[in-house]
# Entry
Amino acid sequence: MVQSCRGTFGSGGEFEPFHQERADGLATLDWLRAQDWFDGRLGMLGGSYLGFVQWAIAAAAPELKAFSTSMTSAEFRSVTYPGESFWLESTLSWVVSVETQERSLLGVAAGILLPNSRLRAAFDSLPVGEADWVALGKEMPQWEDWVRHNEPGDPWWAPIDFTGRVGEVAAPDHLIGGWYDIFLPQTIRDHAALVAAGRDPYLTIGPWAHTDPAIAKTSLPEALAWFRAHLLGLGAKR
# Structure
């Protein structure tokens, strides 16, 4: 089952990155429990944003038997402000790609792989808080929120920070990261938190960057093997 985030790909409402995923994910779990075909065994799989949404609900899903988080993080503040410097290129490219992803098959790549002239101009514009107008010709509230809430410890980030609950997740997680991935420090951090809590995670790191399509050749077979072992009892558990 694949759930589109609120406000994307036909799902109603307005998309507000990161802030609605826990409530919506828990609502989906309630719906799932009511289905006569659901046998009580849940597995979750996904990378990047689809990994974050797993962390948003993992500690509150007793049916979760195994999951696989790939190229992701249990929070996004440290990705937005690595070393306490705002990561302009990464964050603005992501905002543009999400805004354009439903317009064409190249939409996802538009902001990350194939920067257009407006995006390049936005990288050079000041003030940074108005770069959304330069890149997209309109206000993007999430962009301006990220720029405005720049101080360490700003409580605005607290509701979308699930690092404090990582160790509570009993289900085994197969974490997948890339040596050149922007989320590698966070992937290692979340793995370390699981180990410190006495959990039994598994970590795979390969020669990939965040947008490398080759990652799927490893992440999907690895995740399926993980699920066969932990959900079906087939194969060795690592």
